[in-house]
Amino acid sequence: MTTADTVTGTAKTMVLNMGPQHPSTHGVLRILLELDGETVVKAVPDLGYLHTGIEKSCEDKTYSQAITLTDRMDYLNPLGNNLVYCMAVEKLLGLEVPKRAQYIRVLMVELQRISSHLVWLGTHAIDLGAMSVFLYCFREREEILKIFEMFSGQRMMTSYIRIGGVALEPPAGWRPAVRKFLEMMPSRVDEYEALLTENPIWIRRTKNIGYISPEDAIALSMTGPTLRAAGVAYDNRKVFPYSSYEEFDFDVPTRTESDCYARYMVRVAEMRESLKIVRQAMQKISDEGPIKAEAPGIIPPDREKMKTEMEALIYHFKIFTEGFSPPPGEAFVAVESPRGELGCFVASDGSPKPLRVHFRAPSYINLQALPKLVEGQLIADVIACIGTIDIVLGEVDR
Amino acid sequence: MGLEIVTESSSQKASVVAECLRSWNPQAIAKVIEFRNETTIVVPPNLFRAVAERCRADAQLQFNLLTDATCVDRFPVEPRFELNYHLVSIPRRDRVRLQVELNSQDPVVDSLVSVWPGANWLEREIFDLFGIHFTGHPDLRRILLPDDWEGYPLRKDFPVEGYRDVPTSGELFKKSSML
Question: How many domains is chain A partitioned into structurally?
Fold first, then answer.
């Protein structure tokens, strides 16, 4: 970016380095901004500060071991990452997941979506100077994390969704806990809206900022709330339903303004829709029933069976020493993560370790549109734009 | 089964895509693979960009969203590299995978940035991690790794833990001759 002109000082523009240690980049994103006064002329994102080679590590693990790695990509959506990876492996195996496990998955993933949107709203608001929203959002997020801890023993890196089902039976007392959250949450969303939706400062910081046309958004492969705020109702849960989403009644919120304010409105509306789904999922989950598919040699047997049956013991031993081998082939599965289309591509060569695991990371691909959003805008709006793309650097760099 | 729910049967849809491309150019399709309700269309490398352009622009196909692009290294089998581009048609609610196979001698293919601008970072990532070159790419630089990194880590002949040397003569890590 250092041209001869900028060195000699004859050019009108200057280059400003933003990040990687900048609180508003939500991690370790670095952007080189070329400025003309306060206007951004050019923005060049620089990534890779958090690259940990997760895709390469997956190739050295058995199919079940790799689940724990997926938690650590998009750390605001670990259950969604578990889900997409497990669904891809299940597709390779041709495995059918019991309905009860599918509903439990939907319940967990939707709670995760609310908690991810809460972190987004809180941090985005704090970036733009609304301090109190952050504290409110994290208060409610805490309740969701407590539910996760109840289900899986972990608050964040749950690894709760496993190949063929879920790890554990829902714990005693989960219904009252989720019900309590559902009763509390709608009024809390109203609270956030009361603080922001008609707040003149908020509106001036977000309205007509960071516009992208729907055609450009599709051409740049954007997905998720950012695309839906541009008026394209593309949501994997509706367009390519998975995990029994076709049985749930919910709407896909869209806006047409395609600015930061529209993206905010879409995400807030999505929280309400997710609450609707959680409520339905709670009714659909029966008290009794299988939580794992019946597939000896792939799904670890019950503890009881393992201690009484010879075959079960042998399968248990084989699964945890050698793993299982899906047939050679490739599978691609896409789910709707809070950030957009989260895809997982798994290729098998018939051995117990995957030949290739690739994640279609929505943050990474949406971030590609950042220069388009910010060029020509004021430098203060760069922060609003990064915020509404909702990136998680763990997923961008993988 | 619970995992794949499509309104029409997938094989019908596959035949639509394949027939549409065949009627346009009989050489466009080298092979059609059907696995687990997914359609993979293997395209000869020289026609790759033309086929992609057709997939996007054809009124019957309308694959307007390039959702993912990635590579598989089948070392030591030849052709070694397999590029997979996953396309979505939002109006038609359909998915297809375009695949192109490349030799290890000459891993070069046409870039699809001119067809879908979103291919830019996806191809940069493949270039960065696999060393595939894309002709016509406007900005083919490393994206995740540092610019001075040597080697392509996602290739199968790159060790999982990287090249790590035994500390000698007081140096904690010495740069390997291969690195």
Answer: 2
